[in-house]
Fold each of these.
Amino acid sequence: MAVITMNINYFPTLTLVAFISLLTGCNEGDKLTLNERSIIYCSEGPPETFNPQLSISGTTTDATSKQLYNSLIVYKGKNNTLAPSLAKSWHVTGDGKKITFYLRQDVSFHQTSYFTPSRLFNADDVLFSFNRILDKQHSFHYVSGGQYPFFESIKFDDLVERVEKINDFTVRFILKQSDSSFLANLATDYAIILSEEYGSKLAANYSNHDLDILPIGTGPFKLKDYRVGSFIRFYRHDDYWQEKAKIEQLVYDISPSKTSRLTKFLAKECDVSSYPIAHKKITDRKDLTLESITSLNVGYFGFNTKRKPFDNKLVRQAVSLAINKQALIETVYRDQAERAKSILPENSWAYDSSIAEIAYDPERAKELLTVAGYPQGFTMDLWAMPLQRAYNPNAVTMAKLIQTDLKKIGVKVNIISYEWTAFLRRLSQGEHQSFLLGWTADNPDPDNFFTPMLSCSATDKGSNHTFWCNEEYDQLLKQALKTNNISERKNYYSKAMAIINEQIPLLPIAHSKRFQARDIHVEGEILEYFGGINFSQVSKKPAKSIINQVIPQKIEALLPQDYTDDEIITEKVKN
Amino acid sequence: MLTFTLRRLSLFIFTMFALTLLSFSLSFLFPGDTVINHSGQINASATELAELNKSYRMDQNIVIQYGAYLTHILNGDFGLSAVNQSSISNDILKLLPATIELSLVALLIAMLVGIPLGFIAAIYHNKVPDSAILSLAMLGYSIPVFWLGLLAILFFSIGLGWLPSSGQISLLFEIDFVTGIQFIDILLSDSPYKWQAFRDASAHIILPACVIAVAPATIFIRLSRASMIDVLASSYIRAARAKGLNFRQIIFRHAIRNALIQIIRHVGLQFANLVTIAMVTEVIFSWPGIGRWLIESIYQRDYSAIQSGLLVLSCFIFMIHILIDFIYAGLNPLARGNKYGS
Amino acid sequence: MAREKVYLEEVFPSPFMQLWGIFRKTPVAMVGFCCFIFLVVLAIFAPIIAPYNPIDGNLDMILVPPAWHEDGNVSYLLGTDDLGRDMLSRLMYGTSLTFGLSFIVVVFSLVIGVVIGSISALTTGFKSSFLNHCLDVVLSIPSLLLAIIIVAILGPGISNTVWAVAIVFIPQFIHITRYAVKEEFRKDYVLASRLDGANNFRILYYSVFPNIVERLMSQATLAQSAAILDIATLGFLGLGAQIPLPEWGSILANGLERFYIAPWTVYLPGLAILFAVVATNLVGEGIRHALKLRKDN
């Protein structure tokens, strides 16, 4: 008995001493180097897959496209010009039906614990990547569900006749008809190149499924480790064909909760945070910065036009009229967004300002409800997306506001939310009555709004969760794609906009900015103008040099931007 | 001691029976098909389903079904998670050690802080330090743990920037999974950053462990105070005093030892309490433990995970309970007496 | 003791009144008791006193800080939340949910627990042993964990939470009643009434209950402070009261999102919970203290 008591007496002192010496006896030198060589990114959700061909969710492309893969061509700069990537040049024939790509010959695939490439990138890989989508007989077509939402929404298989290998480093796409958005679509985050060699190896091992789980690409980073729903660890791809990434390790810390993401960022547990809330808190701190990019996106309130009561156009109109969009923008977006007048943002060249938006008019809404046969109103389900995206930073709050708005015209709203993957799955099964979601453009072509969101082809498996299908509208989009004449195209799109405004399969709410916060030690562009993020250019400054010299200059350089942001936000908070 | 062991054993068997029976019946109570709730295979094909029905003996009577279910559990097969189709027993094996680690550290802190404070309060019985400590204990006992956790993060992580707010260790460090107890894994790993990782892990555990420790510490204060007051009032202390030992000697040589034994008895019950608090705290500090996992499973209506998680967690708590009972009985022969069936 | 009565008449105050006499003299306990009464009143009259509706927000008044803040507004004394709902009104209504429901829950489990406990105290042998084993299993599982288990089975929601917490506390009351009744039954006065021919029920009702009521009350205060915390914790975890009910725990969880720009939406409900639990615990401590003093006398 005595022995035990003795132990109890001595134990605390010993542990305490050990503990304190551990905590204080710092030798920070080594840790800094590890820290300097790595970036931790607090992301807003887990990727559904590691292959962006299979998903249109921005969270998935953020985690995969620009990190793990390359596409044939890319968008560069603010002018959105197409630039070479894996294809060093390309050629389009006069009729626009044949597009030839000349490929780079020095591109190597990732070498990982699960795959060692024996050859460089060549035409076979391009064929493999696109035939997987196009060819239903392809041994990988039905792996992971056989659904390629983006490609289905742009009717890729109707457009592309075949892909030909001319020689090892030349491929040619043969189109059925000319399409002015084809190149733009190939430059998106979805049209990435997989490794054919890896595919054959997996097929030989009967583990085809791994193609989309254990990814192999040509991008600046390779996958090291993924713990489901917790974190993704990338290592640098040392044989990257472009300038290799400056950091050696990239970790995505998956933190779906907005508050805990901000907490981690403020406590410096991550270097970069996606979609931060409480902007003022960040701009107040001198060691953190907030950046934003105006991205082409739209947040909307969609109706399932295949289910009662929203199969009735009048009901959709009535509900749309009853919603006070301005209040939503002030509350949910904290005024960091423009009110959406149509699904197309006003800065797109195809936007037609002559088409009137659906204004807030609850009186008229009530009348329409009566005409539609619901004088007493009705009860509806509203599905709010569970996570935060630029186009909708807080769908649940928005849903609550809509609930209040609709109560005024006698419509009772039940708010429903599922975990993200389940949410998307159930949406595509059409279990919903109405929903809050949005769309972020992958390229600046206006077709990227009209076709994926509302065309008939996007209905079944793709991205049109309203299940609205209008022949005339689809026809207009098709005609718009056939021509290369800008003013003609604009004309078609403006007619399409008018149809949407009249039918209201969805109510556009806002076009927002995408925000990101980072530690000032982190340098280099991360946010890309379209869609995703890219860490290949990012580096971290050594902390010491910053303390010694860089901070004063850095702060001065940041002040003007900081203050403007600060003022706007402070004012809104006071309101 | 034999009767004591037998009694405990019978209690243990009874409890395990009750818990597995509860867990088994949950499959019937939860919505959906029973066999799917058992196995979690939501996407099972017709043949797989037939196979499952066979292995869970669904065509037989309920007793045999229960037997088949028990066999599955004893083989470590808890089925698959309905949400992401990962093996639940694997998930639990990975997450439970993290919870154990956190709870043990918290228990240690609670005892190290609570017991001495309780003794001090007892020694100064009915004086200022006593009432100060008691008021503090009352406050600690009343404060909602999730709120305390938030305040701690706000103050120590963000305000002062001293301690990290989430997770077990910074994601920069790659520590291979061996035992699941982070500190042991770090020591076993061959990472060049071993000692930094160790320091980082220690910094990560302080805040959640302290938050968890607050409520149990107040209980330890009360317990140790009460037992010390009893001891100080006992005749052998009076005898010691009469022998001419000074106060210090009495306290350190006699009183503390005897008071401690009484406290050990309650450690088991407090550990259970502590694990529950840890579940909530894990959510706030994003600790990758079984509590957070279980609560997320409840959100997502992942019935097979809820069922197995509850079973494992309650078994674990009960085993600790019995273990502490044995330790107490080992230390204190008086406790081996009759307790049940009176 | 000075007796001013003409006739020598021994009037003993009932045990309960004795207790109240001692209780009244402890200032801290009385403060707690007043707070407790205040909360009870608030819980009952919240709909009348509260200045605003707790669910409908005023969208022009979003995230107004409390009145003492420089940007505050006196008509919203404790500020508003992200939907422009008045925090004061929400906290008032929350009193009837968190505090009021916990009170009802405890009374409910107390009644059930006492009935079962008294019956079990009168049984012996195998049945008693079986019950003991069951109680031991249930009591070794912490109340919050058990509540989480039950909510997991029933599904989230305020009514399910109430049921869960009620079920959780019944075993505690069974245990304490059983123990207390057994102890009382060994005493001589029970034997006396038994010799008078009283049956078990009569003894229980007239002799035993008046003597154990304080102990039950003391246990009830413990249970209530735990119940408040459990209901609030479940609400915080999103397993209890659902949006938009103004339950304290869920108000706090709701405010988390705006923690950094509107910290009062987190501080205030936390303080409310703390206040309610401390008040309850003070009352409990007062009763226990009084019990001890009465015993010592």
Note: The interface with chain A takes residues 56-57, 59, 62-63, 71, 82-83, 243-244, 256-261 of chain C (CB under 8 Å).
Amino acid sequence: MPAERGVTDIAASDIVETVPSALIVLDRNLNITSANRAFYQTFRTSRAETEGCLIYDLGNRQWDIPALRTLLESVIPHRASVEGFEVEHVFPTIGRRTMLVNARKIFRPGDHDGYILLAIEDVSEERAARAESKRNWQLTQSIVDTIRDPLVVIEHDMTIVTASKAFLTMFGTTLAEAVGRKFSELGQHQWDVPALRHLMDKVLPENKPIESFEIEDNFPGLGRRVFNLNARKIFQSGNQVTRMLLVFEDITDRKQRERDAETLTNEVSHRIKNNLQIIIGLIAFESRSQAKPSVEGYRAMQGRIGAIAQLYDLISQTSRGDTVAVDDYLTEIARTMAASLLGEKSGIRIDVKAGPLKIDPDRAVPFGLLINELATNAVKHAFPRGKGRVLISVDQVGPEIELTVADDGVGMMDKTQAKTPEKRGADYVAIFVRQLGGAIVPVAAHGTGTTIRIRFPSLLVPQAGPEPLAA
Amino acid sequence: MSVILIVEDDAFIRQIGEVMIQDCGHQTLSAGSVCEALAILRSSQPLDALFTDIYLESAMHGGCDLAIQARSLRPGLPVIYTSGNTLTEKMKSLFLGDAWFLPKPYTQTQLKNSVEGLLAA
């Protein structure tokens, strides 16, 4: 009658058959006394081929591995257990495998020689993944190092993961010094900028990249620099790691050129206007010694020279790239004219009505001078009682634009009157109309007031350029 | 008749300004620099208004600084600024709150309107 298996024996065998690791038991002569199901499955063998076999003879001696011999014959005899002994081998049946072996001597009561329990874990895939990851990292680092712009990868807490050579060179640090440090601690804390920290806090929660964020400061070893930062989150597949990639573009030279250009433009503008002031001054001197009828003409000339300078200011304020916005331009002309011609308590109004049309900047000055001339004439001559309205309107009529300056004043005087200096203003109107290629449109009289209407072809957005050459 | 101090580092434009204002019936004093202007402001010479260029002798906002000092020396002194540069927000931020601005080039009429408008305000 076979001895009943004890509770301990039943539990142990159940455990051995359940664990995923391959287990084999060797006797003191290194013969396999037993193995578990996981061993048979992993190494594609069977109980019949395994039990009683010298381990080195197993499977056409595929277990005759020098490292295993070292473990079993040199290490185990002197130690009760060994953990994590790595064995790499090419098995004929399953190919190259990396195995982690744990070995332990086990003794049964009354047994003096004992047995060796080997737990074998196949870590081939994990090792391959680690090697692949390392190769990918090295490839990535190589790519990063070829990028000319300084580049840094940071964790969500702003500690540095890696940086390109350009970044390390620029900030005079090494990868060893930079990795693991907070971004804000680099280079004497010059990156610890509240605005940058705020953007970093916004990027992570909102999942939006930073585009063209400018930062200007004094950087140790670099001096005052301006950088353009681009940042975006990067995700690593297979885990939940979220990192951020920052690329820096040194735009100091470009910024300096822009500032120099702006300074030069301001200086040129300043000189031009001072020169125009001198011209006005010369006319003012001249007018002091002239007979009264000429004085008005000189005064009118001063007004026109002043108008030219103001128009250039208005053009720069209202231009949008290659065009000038007519509505804004006219509004500013009206405002400037009101400021110079009318007092705060004046009963005369200058109103504007214009759609969102655009005109060529090269024509904006004569266009503005024409409006200035027409509206000034109206203000000076249409309202002897000092009360009335001048309306400047611009509309698009087909491909042309139509300028109308109308007042509700006393109307035009008799044409047979001799031209006075004031009336020469009408000559200037004709000059500007001709200059712009326009034509005065006859307007039927309607009660009091004067309406001047002029149509201009091709005053709108510039014509398209020449046709490209045929291929 | 009022006394207007004109501060302008360009001699000819300064002279033009004086003539224009004198033709309006006012008296003028003139200075070509901040130092010259301060000397006049510190004197007992009666003054009714200050008309100053903003860009003075390479000081981009010299006229703005002068106006602030002038106001501390002569409380309530009316001020008109002028400049050939386009008016910027930076310039505006340096202006006295009740001062006027007359851009260059200004005509005699515009200068007259500004001076008399400021004095009447």
Note: The longest strand of chain A covers residues 223-235.
Amino acid sequence: MKSRSLIVIVLSVLFLMAATSLFSAAAGESTTQTVNPDGNFLEFTDSYGRDVIIPSKPLTIVSLGPNVTEIIFSLGKGNNLIGRTQFCDYPAEAASIEAVGNMQEPNIERIIELNPDIVIASTHVSPEKIGLLEKAGIATVGIYNDSTFEGVYSTIRDIGKVLGASNNAERLIFEMGITISDVTKRVAGKSKPSIYYVVGFGDWGDFTAGGDTFINQMIELAGGNNIASDVNGWSYSLEKIIEKDPDYIICSQFWGTKESFETTPNYKDLRAVQEGSLIAIDNNILDRQGYRNAEGVKTLAMIFHPEAFK
Amino acid sequence: MKTIKSNSHSLHIVMFIVLSLVLCLALLVFLSFGTAEISFRETIRIISGGIFSRTFSEDINQSHIYILWQVRMPRVIISILVGMALAAAGTVFQAIFRNPMSDPFILGISSGAAFGVALGAVTGFMVLIPGIWGLPISAFVGAIIATLLIYFLSGKMQTSTSSLLLSGIAMNFFLSSLMSMLLYFNRDRIENIIFWSMGSFSSANWDKCLIGLPIILLGILSLFYFRRELDLLLIGDESARTMGLSLKRVRIILLIISTLITAAAVSISGIIGFVGLIIPHIIRMIVGPKHRVMLPYAILAGGFFTLCADTFARSILPSSEIPVGIITSLAGAPFFIYLLRNKRREIL
């Protein structure tokens, strides 16, 4: 009797294994080819190193990053956007587009339902999520590059290529280059004020843009001297800020940061705050890699060297 | 390990004074530590200059004066205060629950205080209370609810180690899930909420000192008033009743006071774990379990421990800081496991 029940068990297990593998084979048909409007395809290697085949002139796009959304609009393809993350808030027209989750948690089901011709992801999206979209037959690319101006230009070029808007991409890059060289000319030779850029402060520690960050580059281009350039990364300390006594402090205009800075003990006593040199800006023009970064450099330069822009 | 079971009252008073002076000296030495480079000599000059109101010759860096008086001084004072509070609370909890594993963090009371603050911040309850007192009051409300839950869950008196620990663990899990939920629905206040779970002295300032100093010092003094009752709590209710004392009321009072000083500590610096666990045990191993003797030493040792932990946390890296809760957990967790293994053998 024992050997009989053993045979039954073994056969059942084998049967189950066969059944499930058949089932998953049928269900999991992986394809990176999609049916697309004018039948043409494009071979593209994305920033994650994936070689994908995508439609060459996608009509419907889902963006999984605020900077991607901004670039899509600046390339003139805003009308083709049918999905964005909940944090994509620029330009204003993005508000009317459906939100499909955020960078870490995109709403996969809804994206599959929307069936866009292409999904463009930025950083923070996990490879598993991209894999899920791929399995559902949705062309997905991840685009991000170095945090430098060259990297930003590459990102704009990549997105332009993917959307069939390469001419617009080159035009944007050209305009950005003009803005930046204009700024550089205006601030050349002027003495650089010392700057502290606030990413975070107070109870949870002091965070700024260290010497190896993109924001540090932008501060330097704008004719400023970042006091935190002696560290790499984002972590700093209040004592160092006090010791270095920056001429200007740049913070975000959102989340009540400026008001909070001006009322927190020890921070409010910094000379820059006392002298009214704590300036709040739209930090997204610096944080989000895209077309607005050139405007970001100019904004900083106008704060550091207002006389050069009269 | 030999215990110094000297009943000489005067010996302990002398030792206490000596150790307090050592603590003050440590305070002074550690003032010179930090990310800004201030030598010990410069520290002494600035401090004595401030105390004796001397003016400075030009070679003193003005920012250093500010850093020492406005940033570091409140910070070292607060780190000592919080250590004292947590060690005192731990000692008392261990007596009340008659359980060597009790400590404000393990029992979930610190988490209760942290959650109280998070909830108060998010619901706007804190701003209803004038001045800076909204914070500690929110912390206290959260902490007292956690304490009452633990107290009733563990059946009001002694209970086996495991069920008390389980109640504390359950409390911690429950509260941290609640905090995560708060975080999820209030992403714009993330930094406010996260701070309270990580424990740090980095935002110490004189305002926080003003809150902490009276509550913690008065709380600790009042605990000391009950030192005899604390000893009695350990021998059990029946024996105490034969001595004609009802401990029930004392237990509740001690519970409230310890919760109050825990809440004050958490509202100043967030959750810092294991101090209330390690310190009472180490002191008991050295001077014996009588609270009249060990409580003052425990308080001093607690202050000294967090002072050292914080100094280490803020000076080990050249330009940034490690959260102090990491240091205390690194020291405390292995000790906790060691205790658990020893106590289990005793119970069996």
Note: The CA atoms of residues 63 and 238 of chain A lie 38 Å apart.
Amino acid sequence: MLITKDNKMGDIILHDHQLLAVLNRFDVKLGFGEKTVEEVCKLHNINTDFFLEITNAFHDGNFFTDKKLKSFSLVLIVEYLKKSHDFYTNKKIPEIENLINSIKYKTDDEKFSAIVKKFFKEYVDELNSHIEREEENVYPYVIKLEKAIQNKELEENLFDEIKNQSILKYRDEHDNIEEKLFDLKNIIIKYLPPPENSDVCNVILAKLFRLEQDLNNHSTIENKVMIPAANEMEKEIIKLQKQNLIKII
Amino acid sequence: MPQINVLISEKAFIIKKGLQFILNEIENYSYQFYQNDNTNLKKYLSNNNIDILICNNEFHEENKENIDERKTKTIIIDFEDKSYSKYYINTLEQEKSAITSILQEAGKNKKDKEEKTETISEREIAVVKCVAKGMTNKEIAEELFISQHTVITHRKNITRKLGIKTVSGLTVYAILNNIIDINEVN
């Protein structure tokens, strides 16, 4: 289904409840009544077109063939990406962690529980340092690029970074945090002994699959939208500099 | 069952949606769309382990030398078949089953090849043990008297068979299967 501005917000949630996670990132709360997507967006001061692109991309993974997302300000995109980081670290990870701490095994409980906990902790550490690097280096850099083009001026050290096409370096180093999550699922499904409380493991797995999908969506926005847009801006700035159309201060 | 990765390089919306619809119904087939945004096709095919490429005649002609035929089977989708590719779907085809069987035929090779060995061998267990101890490929090669290249091949096969990609994942596997004692891990 293609979500449009005239759809009722309540209907799109009934159609795909996973979108609640996205609404959360836009600070939209339940209780829509019969309001349409556009009306709810206006009420919350949200750019409706941007909201539609994000929800459609989230709803249908193949929606990304559309180039429209690239036309939005990177400030909007980065803001959304940060909100989703926040959702992972402050909501999802603690939820899963609590559940993982409550798994019980019939035999050797101490040993097996320790193994799962340790593995999960390693994953969380990796995820956190990944997020930290993005929020401290990559996102601010991308925003600076956009500002430089708008203001037609930039600082010299930023220009040095641009000459090295830093965003491509970041892309190549963009480490694969999905791999550990993939392993965690397999270890629980295939290699750990049957737990005493299977229902807990089922909930954990459901949450892991969900998180994985959300993370994939997140990195698709980074790889298909943010990085190409930033790279184009890098090239643009180099071109402008050659024609003396941008000031280096 | 090994997964068959399909790459669709096609711009026409109706054809894309049609393929998507059919592919969703075939077990173990996953698909992605190729966006022609300067990404190197050759690299893309090998990085994503693409088994089947679906494209039109024109695209195929332009990119022939970038497609490793041993690894990736090309299915031409077009209103007429001007190529020498073994697999061809006519856009005017009226029977869904005819299209499904071409897609399945093209993925068959991989299934036969991979289904034979799914448990890990003695040698691979030895490699898992070394990896779990935190040894590098070079150290493993020296320990087991094999080349680093062989170590890499073993590791690739282990990952495929166990579905575990990371070192810490393999360490957990090794502990759980008593390949290594928990105290040996730092």
Note: The first helix of chain B runs from residue 13 to 25.
